[in-house]
UniProtKB/TrEMBL annotation:
Record's keyword annotation contains Transport: no
Pfam family, one: Pyridoxal_deC
Gene3D superfamilies on file: 3.90.1150.160, 4.10.280.50, Type I PLP-dependent aspartate aminotransferase-like (Major domain)
Main enzyme class: lyase
Protein name from the UniProt record: Glutamate decarboxylase
Reaction(s) the record says it catalyses: L-glutamate + H(+) = 4-aminobutanoate + CO2
């Protein structure tokens, strides 16, 4: 964080008088004020600064919920003081968490949902750390039992994985093995995954779906290729499915797609409750197919204020409100309601994608038919403006549509991406389309692109490049 300074190099204080016709107040911006102020004054100051954040509903970069029913918000406010870790003091909040885990286990076809193991987290990132740790620990146990070295674990995944997997590998000292993109292949494929596996592979991460373009990775194909690897070599490598988004899309819209615990090789799955689980940030879920998939020595038994409490988490204290809101959504919508919401998202995404393809200068990379997310690029031969110019033009009207370059081997490819979420209606999609249409004549008249990747700003939500030498967000 850098402190903003004025031209004379002094950090500027906040002057409140006389805007709010209150007592004159002068408060430092970057130091704790000596004295406090009236709550209304403080509220107004904070409230006004936050106006500059823009309008979350127009943020088409994020996968995270920006709309919730008033009743969900009310429940969250009612639960504001509840700490998720205090399972002894708030046993009913803990019970609701437990029910959510069971509902997800059934939704994802766990063999024995009553004995499913899982937990809520702050999001998919924490869930990914837990999933990865379980894979690592299981592999270590197996290796040690065989009397073989367990010090060089690796994890196989596509280069398109969300940044949380890069973090997992780095923080927990696992060698990340990324399958690069190649030609028109923008995610992991079975043969490429297997090529990178060896006796030190703790698991393969399959993403449902990719943050780069919304496409589903072929989980069942990856599982089948690993079955084949096992029959040839004896290597038994589990799969973790990163279903941050797709874990709450596929069960409702693609019931015949086999990606979940129906595949015996799938050991664990994560999802973000705050993405297509439709809860405000931050809640995620991590589930294991059975107790064997989650080594018991990772679970701490805390004796806390008189109760024995099993916990597998990176955090200790964390809000309970989001878990309550998740349970509210499950009750409120049911299977059918979720299907309706997700169906609408997919309809809006596919229609908007088709309309954008019809404008002329753009070519779709994906069409919104898997995740309700699509990516598009400039058609060959359009060279007066770039995707970065398009992103900037839309921003003038408040829309956040990220433009970003693809990773290694396809860094030549720059794309825009739209994430359709609950609340982004056909009507709002039309307004976006109109704004895009209106911007095109001006963009066409440019003599060349005004902006490139360096001007893009960092808001691609996981679709940022993994090579730290490249400019961007690091
Ligand atoms: C969003 C996302 C994550 C990270 O999830 P958070 O809930 O934001 O922590 C991980 N993986 C994928 C595929 C995602 O889309």
């Amino acid at each position: 964080m850098t402190v903003q300074r004025d031209k004379r190099g002094e950090s500027r204080d906040l002057e409140i008088n006389p805007i709010f016709s209150r007592e004159p107040v002068r408060v430092p911006r970057y130091a704790l004020p000596d004295q406090g102020m009236e709550p209304d004054t403080a509220y107004q100051v904070v409230h006004d600064e936050l106006m500059l954040d823009g309008n979350a509903r127009q943020n088409l970069a994020t996968f995270v919920s920006t709309w919730a029913e008033p009743q969900a918000r009310r429940l969250m406010a009612e639960c504001a003081e509840k700490n998720m870790i205090d399972k002894d003091e708030y046993p009913q909040t803990a019970e609701l968490e437990n029910r959510c885990v069971h509902m997800l286990a059934r939704l994802w076809h766990a063999e024995d949902a009553r004995h499913a193991t899982g937990c809520s987290t702050t999001g998919s990132s924490e869930a990914a750390m837990l999933g990865g740790l379980a894979l690592k620990r299981r592999w270590q146990h197996k290796r040690r039992a065989e009397g073989r070295p367990a010090d060089r674990p690796n994890l196989v995944m596509g280069i398109n994985v969300q940044i949380c997997w890069e973090k997992f590998a780095d923080y927990f000292e696992v060698e990340p093995r990324y399958v690069p993109m190649e030609g028109d292949r923008y995610h992991l494929t079975p043969d490429k995954a297997v090529e990178l596996c060896d006796e030190n592979t703790i698991g393969v991460v399959a993403v449902l779906g990719s943050t780069f373009d919304g496409s589903y990775e072929p989980v069942s194909g990856i599982a089948a290729a690993l079955d084949d690897l096992e029959s040839r070599t004896g290597l038994d490598i589990p799969v973790h499915v990163d279903g941050a988004s797709g874990g709450m899309i596929a069960p409702f819209l693609d019931p015949d797609l086999t990606w979940d615990f129906r595949l015996p090789r799938v050991a664990s799955i994560n999802t973000s409750g705050h993405k297509y689980g439709l809860v405000m940030p931050g809640v995620g879920w991590a589930l294991w197919r059975d107790r064997d998939a989650l080594p018991d020595d990772l679970v701490f038994h805390v004796n806390y204020l008189g109760g024995d409490m099993p916990t597998f988490a990176l955090n200790f204290s964390r809000p309970g409100a989001q878990v309550v809101a998740q349970y509210y959504n499950f009750l409120r919508l049911g299977f059918d309601g979720y299907r309706r919401v997700q169906r609408t998202c997919r309809d809006v995404a596919t229609r908007l994608a088709a309309e954008i393809a019809g404008l002329g200068p753009f070519e779709l990379i994906t069409d919104g038919g898997e995740l309700p997310v699509f990516a598009f690029r400039m058609r060959d031969g359009i060279d007066t403006f770039s995707v970065f110019d398009v992103s900037a033009a839309l921003r003038e009207r408040g829309w956040l549509v990220p433009a970003y370059t693809f990773p290694e081997h396809r860094t030549d490819l720059a794309a825009l991406r739209v994430v359709v979420r609950n609340g982004f209606s056909h009507d709002l999609a039309d307004l976006l389309l109109e704004d895009l249409r209106r911007a095109l004549p001006r963009l066409r008249e440019q003599h060349g692109p005004h902006r490139d990747a360096d001007d893009a700003g960092g808001f691609a939500h996981g679709a940022e490049t993994k090579n730290p030498r490249r400019p961007g967000r690091h």
